[in-house]
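Batch manifest, entry 17 of 40.
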Amino acid sequence: MTTTPKPIALPVTAVTCLEDRAHVERAVVLDLEAGVQRLRLGPVSALAVDRTLHAELTADHPASVLDVRLVRRWTPRGPLPNPDEDSALRRHIHALEGEQLTLAQHRDRLQARRDLLGRLAADLLREIGEGAGQGEADGPRWAGELDRVDEERDTCGEQLRIAEARLASLADELGEAERAVYASEGDPAELVGHVELTVESAVAGPVGLRLSHLIPCALWRPAYRAVLDGDSLTLETDAMVWQRTGEDWSDVRLTLSTARSALATDPPRLDEDRLTLTDRSVAERRTVDVELREEEIGTLGPAPVLGLPGVDDGGEARVLRAPAPVSVSSDGSAHRVPLSAFTTAARSEYACSPELSPLVTRVARFHNTAGHALLAGPVDLVRGSGSGGRGTLDFTAPGAPVDLAFGSCDDHRVVRHAEESRDTTGITQRTVITRTVRLHLSRFGAPAEQGDRVVTLRERLPVSEVAAVEIRVREESCSPAPDVVDAEGIARWDVSLPPGGRRTVTLVYEVSANAKVTGL
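Output type: structure tokens
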């Protein structure tokens, strides 16, 4: 078996970046001899996962891989030079260390002197107090001694401040000098990996090699940039890629996947769930126990997860590809990779939910025409006046509607007041709870501003799940009556406001329950 002593370069050609790792592919053309031979390929990152190493050959004649393994070599840092042969930079470090030691001792002496002067001042004040209590009056001497102690303390404090400032400056200068010595003198410690490949070829000739493996210290997250221009919106989909694998990715085909290869795939266990029926007691037949609870309106997509945000893919693995070759250096910094962009018609709405926030927010509504799902991630918001901050985009399927908030309007204010009254009828013993909600909406426009603006107000009503409790909107008492009340109990008004205008919206509804109901 022949062995090639010189390593053969094995560049990275394609990368599939996962949520917390990457799948790296390498390709090279080998000029093989007939028979069995061992090749040394690399260098490659020493972080490669050995058990995921896979190699395959492509050729017009029979050729096969007999063995493939990753070999690592540790090169320790070189020995320090002889002190007699120190460079000018090292001699400068020794001088800084000596000055730092001398100055630290001087600082300690100043701190001890300052503490002693503080105790002396305390003793002097106690002596003055005792003398004044015994009828002694030596004002000039006491004043002179106090002034001398205060002057000494001020001088000592100023010297201590100068010493501490110089020590801080010496620490920074010494750190920079040590980093310069570390970078310029001696070879750093290094861990290098190589691939040892044993192949067999029937005849001599070129053979294509494709090698792949997993590697940690690489991840990606989606990011977006939304530009709102009148009635059109442009959404750019990017990927933020970080990697610290030890080797740069230069002009690689980048694929971004949400697959989680580290998750277990064991099926869930099936347990028995026995259901039993029991007769209701007399007390249970006589009363209906109800309770009020807060519940979010259900939407598509998974529930939010607290902690470090991952890639929200809606429960299905998604794959995105960069349209052009990408270069990502191994520096641990964020690299923005463009993926796609689309422009679509958008409808703007000035919306407010006073129960949640007194702010009026501009919301753009559009449909996802990117051709792929939009994963959850941050959005840089841009309007005609410039950057509008950063928002959040939830997971959106292809073609699904999107609601994107572009910040609040500073010239609008909403004040909410709620009142509640309770009454019981005498004949039927029916409990009636009347709630009145008043929303005061104001618009503070500029002097030259013209034109009305429609603000959509939303206020929620309780929704009953039992027939014994009824909810009714008293439209005759509302001012004005809600434009729409949907099945989720959300009342909506479209209020038109001129510059400097004010409007008050009143909502009155009743919650009535018969005598059997308890818990309201």
